[in-house]
């Protein structure tokens, strides 16, 4: 995980940073209102998995297909519920960011939610009525990890006739500079603490 951090930190520390980012993200989402919480994971969960989360395996293939398959999983498990997919590389995520846009009062009339990332990607994608065919139409073939990924997905959402609710933009962790900026934004996170162990992150001691 987080292979772009390996040149700066080494493989073991990069893996530790990825684990911390995932743990922070799960902790934040555990505080957000949700009827069901699903982790789509490549591998076995560790002690970082909070209670109340269901785990299903990722499918094979590129990221576009794995994201689409995650929505298909959600649709099978809760066919009438909206689904929000959140990446694991925004450990500074505040659950309050999701509370208002996803509240019952603001959901009517919204077909999808889109959270742009500062690098041109996206950190969150939601569907009010997810199904496997719709997810495939929106995601299959989209070039991932490019400066145009988010724009391509947003264009597909609009081309499908979906009304899109936009979530606030967030910085996701790709390289070492991103890691330092994110740790400065959220110095109390596990991610920031792990980065300080690498002698890099600013800020006070973490929880």
What labels would you give this structure?
207 residues, alpha/beta, disordered C terminus
Characterization of the model:
The chain has helices at residues 6-9, 11-30, 63-77, 96-99, 132-139, 149-159, 176-185, 190-197; strands at 37-41, 53-57, 83-86, 112-116, 122-127, 164-166. The protein is an alpha/beta fold. It has a 4-stranded mixed sheet, with helices on one face. A two-stranded parallel ribbon has the order 1-2. Strand 4 and strand 5 (122-127) form a beta hairpin. Helix 2 (11-30) packs antiparallel against helix 8, helix 3 (63-77) packs antiparallel against helix 5 (132-139) and helix 7 (176-185) packs across helix 8. The longest helix has 20 residues, at 11-30. The radius of gyration is 17 Å and the shape is globular.
In short:
Helices cover 39% and strands 14% of the residues.
Please specify the SSE layout and strand pairing.
Layout: H1 6-9, H2 11-30, E1 37-41, E2 53-57, H3 63-77, E3 83-86, H4 96-99, E4 112-116, E5 122-127, H5 132-139, H6 149-159, E6 164-166, H7 176-185, H8 190-197
Parallel strand pairs: 1-2, 4-6
Antiparallel strand pairs: 3-5, 4-5
Helix pairs in contact: 2-8, 3-5, 7-8
């Amino acid at each position: 995980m987080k292979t772009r951090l390996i040149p700066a930190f080494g493989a073991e520390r990069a893996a530790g940073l990825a684990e911390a980012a995932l743990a922070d993200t799960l902790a934040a989402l555990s505080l957000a209102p949700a009827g069901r919480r699903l982790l789509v994971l490549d591998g076995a969960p560790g002690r970082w998995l909070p209670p109340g989360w269901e785990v299903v395996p990722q499918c094979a293939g590129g990221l576009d297909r794995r994201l689409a398959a995650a929505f298909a999983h959600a649709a099978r498990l809760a066919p009438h519920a909206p689904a929000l997919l959140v990446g694991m590389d925004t450990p500074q995520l505040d659950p309050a960011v999701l509370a208002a846009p996803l509240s019952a009062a603001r959901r009517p009339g919204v077909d999808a939610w889109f959270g742009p990332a500062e690098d041109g990607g996206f950190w969150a994608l939601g569907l009010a009525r997810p199904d496997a065919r719709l997810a495939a139409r929106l995601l299959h073939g989209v070039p991932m990890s490019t400066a145009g990924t988010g724009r391509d997905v947003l264009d597909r959402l609009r081309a499908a006739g979906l009304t899109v609710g936009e979530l606030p933009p967030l910085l996701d962790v790709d390289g070492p500079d991103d890691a330092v900026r994110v740790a400065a934004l959220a110095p109390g996170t596990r991610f920031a603490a792990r980065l300080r162990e690498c002698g890099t992150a600013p800020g006070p001691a973490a929880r």
